[in-house]
Amino acid sequence: MIVGTTAERKEKEKEERRASIVDAAERLFSVKGYDSVRMDDVAKEAKLAKGTLYLYFENKEALYIAVVLRGVALLGEMIGAAMAREKKGISKTYAGGLAYYEFSRKYPFYFGMLLDAQQRSAVGTLSETVRDEFLHAKHRALQTTVEAVRVGIADGTIRPTAEPRKTALLLMEATTAMIRTSHEVHVTRGSPTATRDEIVYFTLDMLRQAIENKEKYR
Question: Which pTM does this prediction carry?
């Protein structure tokens, strides 16, 4: 058995403590909301001295983006795994949309944090550094969809005029809006509206029809 060096052990302990702090912040954000949480609250939840907390995170916004990036990474993993199971590009994009919906259902807190970060980024309430971190993470997550569109153009299932990055952005933003709308669905008295699943499947089918290469099927 190879024993790690003292430096390696210390680095591992540092990473574990950092993760435990993010866990604590995540629990508090999910219960109280980001704006109502103080660094003192996080230190208490993580069972750390406040001074120790600041050795890892300089402010609450740094904790905020750490939680958001967890969500972005998880979303990217789920979309990537779903797309990897498909061969055709058009099928990959559809599978990615379904995975995004599944993410929102399975991890509503992370989905909400992503929407919140997007809103804060748009209105300029995030610092430039944190905003850049968020946008870079979104860009990395988007690349999986960009590649799926490229595959679709190459295999003929997506129309050749579809510009990969613009098409990927369209798919992601439309899917985000659709999922947000589906969460607001309710049943009215005596007249049930469409279910969340129906809204999702309808929208994803419309998006698929918008980008598919219809010439291939003539």
Answer: 0.88
